[in-house]
Amino acid sequence: MSTNSLSDLDLQIASLSVHADDSYAMVSDVAPPLHVSTTYHYNSDPSKLKSAKEHDIRVRDEQSSFIYSRFGNPVVERVEAVLSAILNGHAVVYSSGLAAYTAALAYYNPRRLSMTDGYQGCHGVARIFNRFSGLEQVPLYDDSVSTGDLVHLETPINPTGLSVDLAKAVEFAHCRGAKVIVDATFAPPPLQDPFEFGVDMVMHSATKYLGGHSDLLAGVLVTKDPQVRLALLQDRGLLGGAPGNFESWLLLRSLRTFKLRVETQAKNAGKIVAWLDSAIKNNEIPALTKVYHSSLQTDEFVRKQLKTGLYSPAFSIEVESVEVAKSIPSRLKLFHHATSLGGVESLIEWRAMSDTSVPETLLRLSIGVEDADDLIADLKAALLSFSAK
Ligand SMILES: Cc1ncc(COP(=O)(O)O)c(C=O)c1O
């Protein structure tokens, strides 16, 4: 359910993250309980019982009780109330980002998928759909895009953190009768709201910034259309992509501090990128050759999309050789060498380990909530250690 008693108030993200699910509390506890049951008692009043022919058991309305956890449970509903409020639409939650993406492709069932570069897993899901339905993958702005097709934009893009022009792609797609889905994982609110540019669906890997603690897998699709939400819930009830009860509870708990975390991470990243950029321009660190980040793009659309002046907390650098790229993680003290992003702890990844599409000199950084100056000092010492040979 995405309606709640606070909907008349003009609350901001920080308040919504804490209160958008208040009306879903069943007892008086302040912290939401974890419900582990997979099945729920039917109504003990025989006159209230409805057969499956009379109502859709996959979609709970306010009058009916919970039935079976795959169709909905109290924790998932609370998470969806918060995510609907902060992501500015009707949110449907899944067991991972890729489960959400799979659900989106199953719902739109396009003939052609026109895609930006970006997270390789989404390209992999599209290849599986090619086996099911013959789905054809074509580049962004391909001339073949037409009615019934889907344009998939990722912005900012994984792993570079560079932005693509949403307004331009939406105009291209809608003129041709195609729909647009945006994977906005790299810039969650308040950094960016893709709905402002007329996109049809927004997706996030909630494993990243929404979860924010590297301890849960989840994904979310967001739509402005209540009928699409209904169809997604019906599909989810059958495809089985519902999130686990415990993961949903962890996500709900994490969302309480969502804005604090994301803003701190984005501010830290901005400071670190500015330092890296000036170090390259002043030739201070010979081993460092490139830094990629939306904050360094000069295109006007970037400022319109990331209008708060904060940019993705994840970005990439390139260094002088593959050997240096492989060695840097082990010379850092405050960054874990690990894949993924969005958690409170800073990560760095020699990206070639998990992505075949990038140069082997590229490292992806995911900035956490540590002190930015400490992170800069750590990076500086590691990067300079290669010129002291
Ligand atoms: C941009 C992006 N989209 C989607 C995903 C997939 O999300 P998940 O790992 O939660 O399935 C990822 C994972 O890294 C990602 O970076």
UniProtKB/TrEMBL annotation:
Q: Which GO terms describe its biological process?
A: transsulfuration
InterPro entries according to UniProt = Cys/Met-Metab_PyrdxlP-dep_enz, Cys_met_metab_PP, PyrdxlP-dep_Trfase, PyrdxlP-dep_Trfase_major, PyrdxlP-dep_Trfase_small
- Give the keywords, sorted: Pyridoxal phosphate
Return the GO cellular component terms, semicolon-separated. Answer: cytoplasm
The cofactors named for this UniProt entry are: pyridoxal 5'-phosphate
N6-(pyridoxal phosphate)lysine PTM positions: 208
The organism's superkingdom is given as Eukaryota
Instruction: Show the SUPFAM superfamilies listed in the entry.
Output: PLP-dependent transferases
GO molecular function annotations of the record? carbon-sulfur lyase activity; pyridoxal phosphate binding
Family of the protein in this entry: Belongs to the trans-sulfuration enzymes family.
Q: What is this protein called?
A: Cystathionine gamma-synthase
Q: Which organism is it from?
A: Lipomyces starkeyi NRRL Y-11557
